[in-house]
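#random but structural
TW: two for the price of one
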Amino acid sequence: MDETKQPGIRLVQVFLEKATFKHRPGFLDLPAEKPADVRELLVALETGLTSDGSAALIRTRVRTKPKTEAVYEFDVTMTALLEREQTAPNMPLDNYVSLAGWTLVFPFIREAIANITGRGRFGPVWLSPFNLKAQTGTRRKQKA
């Protein structure tokens, strides 16, 4: 691999796979100025690679922890599809996915959550920077 060149990987698609949102019970009894300080989150990270290594899936799910007293409850999943460029592949797709794949999807899910929650009574939730190395992920090999 030539570290002075681009990886030769193409982002095919990023899409919102799932989104659920609701206010917590009794939310109308809370003052409208209450900040949407949602910190108790569960994050799931998943990757998949075709058997020939030519395409990959990266999925990130962020949801509020059940039974917390957050003003919002949400469950959002974003998925990205990647493929190795045929003309100039410089980095194996599995290397890219394991090194930087999840960081590719995180800004998209951050924006989706801010957009969805921004339409709620208490304003948007912005996901804080996230330590992906501390997160346990799941790798699944997909069949071509």
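TW: number two ↓
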Amino acid sequence: MIQLTKVLYTARATAEGGREGHTASDDGRLDVELAMPPEMGGPVDGVGTNPEQLFAAGYSSCFHSALKLVARRMKLDADDSTVAAAVGIGPGEGMLGYGLQVELTITLPKVEDREQAQQLVETSHQVCPYSNAIRGNVDVTLTLV
């Protein structure tokens, strides 16, 4: 388990109604309706997001910040780079509940050396707080395109 030496920021949000409810941050910056995705029995024309989309948005943003930090340290150009996250949910093998899997697709158009680009991605995976939080519990695939 990771023990923080200092808490720099704490995000707070409250959900009501579960996957078919509402969630909002305490500061009002995030305020969204939630809906079950059609693939899981929700309405095809439903309005709202879901926890997996929120996780994908958070993880891709966090990983991209780590990537830019590591690129600066390695003196690599991360301009125009992107990180896309695909978060899957489904029954977990050998468990009662559900689990997640993640694929992060990273584009680094200004890093021409493939070996350096791969090292950048792998080091970023060690730096990213989301990666560190789920390591060993969620299957994460890093795809460099």
